[in-house]
Description:
β10 and β11 form a beta hairpin. Helices cover 0% and strands 58% of the residues. The strands form 12 sheets. Strands 16, 17, 18, 19 and 20 form a 5-stranded antiparallel sheet that branches. Strands 21, 22, 23, 24 and 25 form a 5-stranded antiparallel sheet that branches. 50% of the residues are buried. The protein is an all-beta fold.
Amino acid sequence: xxxxxxxxxxxxxxxxxxxxxxxxxxxxxxxxxxxxxxxxxxxxxxxxxxxxxxxxxxxxxxxxxxxxxxxxxxxxxxxxxxxxxxxxxxxxxxxxxxxxxxxxxxxxxxxxxxxxxxxxxxxxxxxxxxxxxxxxxxxxxxxxxxxxxxxxxxxxxxxxxxxxxxxxxxxxxxxxxxxxxxxxxxxxxxxxxxxxxxxxxxxxxxxxxxxxxxxxxxxxxxxxxxxxxxxxxxxxxxxxxxxxxxxxxxxxxxxxxxxxxxxxxxxxxxxxxxxxxxxxxxxxxxxxxxxxxxxxxxxxxxxxxxxxxxxxxxxxxxxxxxxxxxxxxxxxxxxxxxxxxxxxxxxxxxxxxxxxxxxxxxxxxxxxxxxxxxxxxxxxxxxxxxxxxxxxxxxxxxxxxxxxxxxxxxxxxxxxxxxxxxxxxxxxxxxxxxxxxxxxxxxxxxxxxxxxxxxxxxxxxxxxxxxxxxxxxxxxxxxxxxxxxxxxxxxxxxxxxxxxxxxxxxxxxxxxxxxxxxxxxxxxxxxxxxxxxxxxxxxxxxxxxxxxxxxxxxxxxxxxxxxxxxxxxxxxxxxxxxxxxxxxxxxx
Length: 588
């Protein structure tokens, strides 16, 4: 067993301090629990940890008190950060840490000053600045601004690439190139460009796969094959293809599950069963099926917000689609080939769990459904997804079964019945009929209760909103949410509060914009944001600055776009003029 450089292993989840990473779960009711793993890579303990309450959601994990055991960092609805210090399944300490302010989002944890305590990395969605809090338990003992990598780069992860025991930051540019900042506290002391894996390979995470005390990069390609880059500083020094777990398994996480000082990979099946590959660099040397925690439990996050930073536009005259990569006020993009007669872009989703959005089309003449697989502004391939049959219309995309792969939602125009197609990559693996919502019209799909599975939002003729909370095709909850009344009109669904649950955005007749923060069907917060700038209308609610919180994209009648970057109901940034996308282009 080697624990010489925990910083190189990236995200740590060793709750009992035995040198092996464990599995953290969250239930549909908000409780947290663990499976602890032995040096043989099997379950040898664990149990319930506790429930932080409805106002708290997991933000990160890390060893903030330096005792060699992983703690959990939570974010409150008001922005306050607090921790549980854990020993096995016991909460032995912790408490409130502080509130960084609405502009700052905690994106990761690492030991930036090499003192054996995890620190917190923040990102300012308005300015692009990165900063740290250096921690000792719940005490902030230092930190400050680090720098701004520029609009071309997005954050990917935290690791120790030069093996000095201090965490560094990995970025990826919009063209796919990876680069690092090597840090000493808040000082950038080195780093540079590593390389470009190519458009067919997608970033999955960081770990020390060869056990040399330096972080390596894990990739997955569009055919579910995994591979590594072994890194020393900014140099690619080894690695190779690991293999494919098959369509039945989806990537879940990276950890050292047998305590040998080398990172391994965990996977899950659609039914929740977890399994591992135990690795020696890129060789599979062991592994096992761990078990199934049950339908009410899913593996918890703790690795910061994810980022899908692309917007797509369609030309209604030519059926052409354009990819627009949004990064604060900058726009990168390209016009893609025309889709052909009858094909309309309906939605975007991530079929391969790559962190990159794909575009989904339906042919209004034949009913057939197809997808464009996108990477670095390039169409890798166009794939036929099937034909649902006469009368079935594609209405949305999301992850209805919680396997991190995009699925499709259809409605039958004659009967009103809703149904899903579940996908693993671009292979249809499940789905079925959900039901009929008599008297209600479907308006949007999103994860309303934070269980990692997409739910459905409806409205009736009187303006009453209601939801189905879903587990694939099973309605497991839901009910009436409320009626905003007056001249309020629904404008979009997105997680404006950053709690992992989709919220509702409204606009009234005067142009005032407001939100309902949701927890399932309960309104738990929200309020007025501000009045729509003159001459503009809401085009889309989406995360434009990759801070894990939904923002608002506006457009005017001439095709000029602008934005508000949000932290719940606070406008923390944005751009009065992002770019000009001429009519008849419209955002998907």
